[in-house]
Design goal:
It contains twelve helices and 15 strands. By secondary structure, the protein is an alpha/beta fold. The chain folds into two domains: about 120 residues, Alpha-Beta Complex (Aspartate Aminotransferase, domain 1), CATH 3.90.1150.10; about 260 residues, Type I PLP-dependent aspartate aminotransferase-like (Major domain) (Aspartate Aminotransferase, domain 2, 3-Layer(aba) Sandwich), CATH 3.40.640. It is globular and about 80 Å long.
Length: about 450
């Protein structure tokens, strides 16, 4: 009755009420060739114990125990067990949006704390309650810059995550928002400042860069900001790896920061859901998309939290809305809030230093193999690096998989000029044994090549 609430008696009563002779007569209006005249080909019903056994057997088929050197916007970090313990509490694990502050103080305070920590990390004045993910956040940031400046063009660094650029192109297609790409320096992997300067015009609303960029290289944000601001454009800095802010100077020269917070305790989960962020200077507050939770006091002087800003089309007139995003990632943002609370300021710094050191060791070990070369060595980087090999990645990748290791991401899909180049990432979950094994596997093929 819980899942099939219509008993035979109830069905008979329903048919009598509407004057139908039978269920078949109810569907006579549908041509016979489109009606199913047999039982559904589905397995028999199963007991709960049988269903559990089925899924355990299916789960056992998954590949487990692999070490992964993949990064490129989705990073494998350790997740403290307290995260799932807390987010699965009934107070938080709900799809309902916290409109009514009188019954959602816990959720609203969690969002407020999230905003506060994000603002501190990014060096911005204010942060919103979260976006869908880093890619949509970057696109929303560009449209925000259009509203602020009244201009209608964008310049995007080619070192921005290719999939972020694809999402921006989708957003911009019907927005009348053309964009141009600024290339990168072949030695440093940073955006080419001269090319960037040449592409910014009086019609440019925003300059979008990423740091650390898609190659793992840290961009010269002060120099880029000076170029953009000299021509009246806003600077948007996208951050795909949030942990980098533990050691990398925050982009305080930016006008808007768009970030993916997945690294803060959010599982990879086959690509989502993740947690996007937009943070900005206070003067641009009213053009921010999404929501903002604020702190206030009630009539008795007690601290409370309310939804202060919600500039979406469901709340205000469509022509005044800053975004058609209909929700934020409150539950996923809560994961990030718990992660940041558990680690704290010193913990985040130590975690970032650990990643930095691990990647430096991995880059040196892999580049030391015959026929391998580290690219973009002329600028600082975080925990990702680009490795070029004489042997094609399709040759050494299966050998690594035999050792239960997933190698770097092939870059030629987005950067044809980087043939045989791969992007590697080493987080705290990569061990020295993984690095040594990967180096030996590469060396075996490279010597032969």
């Amino acid at each position: 009755m819980r899942y099939l609430p219509k008993s035979p008696a109830e069905r008979k009563q329903m048919l009598a009420e509407i004057g139908a002779r039978s269920i078949d007569s109810l569907f006579e209006v549908i041509p016979a060739e489109y009606r199913l005249d047999r039982d559904l080909d589905v397995p028999r019903q199963q007991a709960e114990s049988e269903i559990i056994d089925y899924f355990r057997a299916a789960a056992a088929k998954n590949s487990t125990g692999y070490a992964s050197f993949l990064g490129a916007g989705a990073y494998s970090h350790y997740r403290p067990v307290i995260i799932d313990t807390l987010v699965q509490r009934g107070e938080f694990l709900t799809s309902y949006t916290p409109y009514q502050p009188e019954i959602t103080q816990g959720t609203l305070q969690a969002i407020f704390e999230f905003q506060t920590m994000i603002a501190e990390l990014t060096g911005m004045d204010v942060a919103n309650a979260s976006m869908y993910d880093g890619s949509t956040g970057a696109a929303e940031a560009v449209m925000m810059a259009v509203r602020v400046t009244g201009r209608h063009k964008a310049v995007v660094a080619r070192t921005v995550h290719p999939e972020y650029r694809e999402v921006l192109a989708t957003y911009a297609k019907h927005q009348g928002l053309p964009s141009t790409l600024a290339g990168y320096d072949q030695e440093t992997g940073r955006v080419d400042l001269a090319a960037l300067d040449a592409q910014i015009t009086s019609e440019t609303a925003a300059v979008l860069v990423q740091s650390p960029n898609f190659f793992g290289v840290i961009e010269d944000i002060p120099a880029i900001a000076a170029i953009a601001h000299a021509k009246g454009a806003l600077l948007i800095v996208s951050i795909a790896e949030a942990v980098s802010l533990g050691v990398v100077r925050p982009p305080i020269e930016a006008d808007i920061v768009s970030m993916e917070a997945q690294s803060f305790g959010v599982a990879l989960s086959y690509g989502g859901p993740y947690c996007g962020v937009i943070a900005a200077k206070e003067k641009y507050l009213r053009q921010m998309p999404g929501r903002l939770v604020g702190q206030t006091f009630d009539s008795n002087g007690y601290r409370g939290f309310v939804l202060t800003l919600s500039t979406r089309e469901q709340h205000i007139r469509r022509e005044k809305a800053t975004s058609n995003i209909c929700t934020n990632q409150a539950l996923v943002a809560l994961m990030a809030t718990i992660f940041l609370t558990v680690y704290g300021k010193e913990g985040i710094r130590e975690l970032a230093e650990h990643n930095l050191a691990k990647a430096a060791f991995a880059a040196e070990a892999l580049a030391a193999q015959p026929g391998a070369k580290l690219l973009f060595t002329g600028a600082p980087r975080f925990h990702e690096f680009v490795l070029s090999t004489v042997e094609e990645p399709s040759q050494w990748s299966p050998r690594l998989l035999d050792e239960k290791i997933i190698g770097g991401l092939e870059l030629s899909r987005w950067y044809p000029e980087l043939e045989n180049a791969t992007l590697w990432c080493a987080t705290e979950l990569i061990t020295r044994a993984h690095i040594d094994t990967a180096a030996k596997v590469l060396a075996a093929g490279l010597v032969e090549a």
